[in-house]
Amino acid sequence: MSIDEIIALLEQEYGALEWRPHADPVSVLMGTILSQNTSDVNSHRAFDRLIGTFSTWERVAEAGVDEIAEAIRGGGLNRIKAVRIKACLEGILESQGSLDLGFLARPAFSEAKAWLEKLPGVGPKTAACVLLLSLGKPALPVDTHVYRVSRRLGLINSKVSPREAHQLLEAMVPEGERYEFHFHMLAHGRKVCQARRPLCHECVFQRQCPKIL
To answer: How far is Cα 134 from Cα 26, in angstroms, rounded to an integer?
Structure first.
């Protein structure tokens, strides 16, 4: 099954999507850090509590790690994430003098990605989320759902790491299709191709999926 066939079947199943900015780059960065290893419900609650407690990212940057950790308690790994959040914000301030990542819209995708990945605790997925969701760059975030579905469909093999998956999938998926591909694969992983009990009988790929055949 070709990548074009997969993209077409996903769009048929979940509908067409057009890119829209989700939030400013720093907010997407913070939200992505908070989403690591926890549920959407918990990460959204932690995000709301964090910004509700401090009002601005500048005030978060000025706060101590303990204060940040307390604000995001219940979001999972709050101490580790508090350290990452503070380090990232301080890194941006040190480099740019302000918490504004809008400048990343100007350089080439690869250059913007490399800059983000130099920040403490920022890997390929976090960088890709900022670039795609906020700046409209042709990044392809590979979260746990995209990774799982891609492996089951045979797009990547079981030995490919999540870091390697970003490069391989970005090479496969046309730039203009990456936003829709990310969200369609995410939806499919949540609703049908679940980790423990995939609903193969409901799957749009049931006649072509290597895991079913």
So the answer is: 9
